[in-house]
Amino acid sequence: MVTKTASLGRNLPPKDDIKGSRMLEVAFKAIGAIERVGNKLPHPVWLFVFLATALVLLSAIMEALGVTVVKPGDGSEIAVKSLLSREGLQVIVGDVVDNYAAFPPLATILTTMLGIAIAEKSGLINAVLRMTVTKVKPRYITFAVSYAGMIGHVAGDAAYVSLIPLGALVFRAVGRSPILGAIVAFVSISAGYDASPSLTTTDVLLSSISTAAAQTIDPTAFVTPTSNYFFALASSVVISLVITLVVEKVLSKRQDLDEDADGIEKEPSSVHLEEAEYRGLRAAGVVALVFAVVLIAVLAFPASPLRGEGNGLLNSPVMTGMAGIIGLFFAFVGYAYGRKAGAYEKPSDVIPAAVDGVKSMAPILVLFFAISQFLAYFKWSGIGQVIAVSGAGLFERLNAPGWAILLGVAILISVMNFIITSGSAMWSLAAPIFIPMLMLLNIPPETTQAMYRVADSVTNCVTPMSPYFVMALGFIQQYRKSAGIGTLASFTIPLAGVIWVVWMVLFFIWYGFGIPFGI
Q1: pTM score, two decimals?
Q2: Where exactly are the structural domains of the chain?
């Protein structure tokens, strides 16, 4: 009898496994609840329409109640103005076009996208990603695929389409699970969305929204697209290392990585570059180098016409027009690659590519219309300033340290990101409140924006509300037909948890030592 009991005991799963399975079960239930709640939310466009309507009513109520605050510094009084007044209706009805045209990210994101579309359609970005993962030894393949994801952020959402199947193929080519390769690529792109070794459209988009929010406190404030570049560059390396460590030490040990489907019908050699592509990359590299040298040279001279007032760099046309500089850079290197690789035969061939890039922005342009009206109402009514001053006053009375305030805001953003997965929509809601509030507590907008980028990125790989979560699941199901949301989440939850902690630690080290987040 004793022997039988001992034998049964030996067949029982270890306590750690039981505990781990229970934790995953709880996590899956939470994910299911988030999915159910999120599915009941309207499209982000309608969400902003509803918020704008509520804001109109709230402004009338707050004006009737005589809500005012005293602005720190100059002691001026800020009162809430009703949007149902004659002046308010002018903002709602008469200024509808101006509200849209004056929305800071509108023109900047389109300008940048024109150049990036030329590079993307030429095949340059895809070639760079493939070169990144094929020029390394198999033992470094996890880091290579992960860092390719960081590079792929230049392509925006297109990186999901190209890199997830590429990650699967590369892992399969070196004898490893393609499922794991797809997950590494997906998590790198989504959880590390705001970390990149190069400037991206996200830098342009977020900095534009941050500038508009900061100018409610300081009309001269300007947040450049390079304001978080140093932090983003370091983050891209750190996050890739974290993903590599968790995958190699934990996830690769799982016993459920075998395929049960035929997989993507492509030979592993398809990840390798052709000679024409190598010629294109060499040409693109030369053009990129020349572009950088010329830009540095014209800024090096104090009397340069591209310097700003007082021979400044931060107020120079290059910095204030960074969106155009980024667009031109990608247009030049993309065309150089395309000519050598055979994608473009003559300069006019880039026009259809640029047109396609603008077409791809159509959903964002529709969303921007709703956001721009909401933000115009928010700014004119004075509600944002009242909230900012009141919130800053509360934190001052509580004597809360800056790091604690930033951590609290980061947790709130991470939770909100489970439901509102659009980074621009989320920042459009958060920036007008948090940037002015923290500016009054002597926390620069660049710091608040950097914190937001960490908090907004990590949970992207966990929430089933993201369309790319479903896309990643579709790629994985090509290798395992039985895979579901729980399968993907069981891989992404541990990665997201570790990335969030490490990235936040990196942010607070940066913040604590006063290291510049960017230029």
Answers
A1: 0.73
A2: 20-512
